[in-house]
Design a protein that fits this description.
This protein is an all-alpha fold. Helices cover about 85% and strands about 0% of the residues.
């Protein structure tokens, strides 16, 4: 652990020193990294914000899910009832037509 800490300190110090060194054009080597570090920090902040929004949406969905399931269940019951009523009415109509068609001459 001591070697790791020592390596970390030496690496950080070397990074600071290299960032202060200027290239042929007089620009610091660490200058362009500042923009990237700032952008990375903004990305991390945005990610944290979006994770919070995701957690909030998850809680909201969990809260509303039972009501949605109840609504779907009620709709399924109503559809089943409608299908049963429609089937019964269709059968009555078929029977009436069959009865009508089976009596030639009387109804024509």
């Amino acid at each position: 652990m001591k070697k790791w800490s020592l390596g970390l300190v030496i690496g950080a110090a070397a990074g600071v020193i290299i960032s202060l060194v200027k290239d042929k054009n007089g620009h610091r080597l660490g200058g362009p990294l500042k923009n990237e570090v700032t952008a990375f920090g903004n990305d991390v902040s945005e990610l944290a914000l979006n994770i919070g929004k995701l957690k909030n949406a998850k809680r909201q969905l969990a809260a509303e899910l039972p009501a949605a399931q109840q609504t779907v269940s009620e709709l399924n019951s109503k559809i089943k009832h409608y299908q049963d009523d429609t089937a019964e009415l269709t059968n009555k109509m078929k029977k009436s037509y069959t009865d009508f068609a089976s009596k030639p001459g009387e109804n024509h």
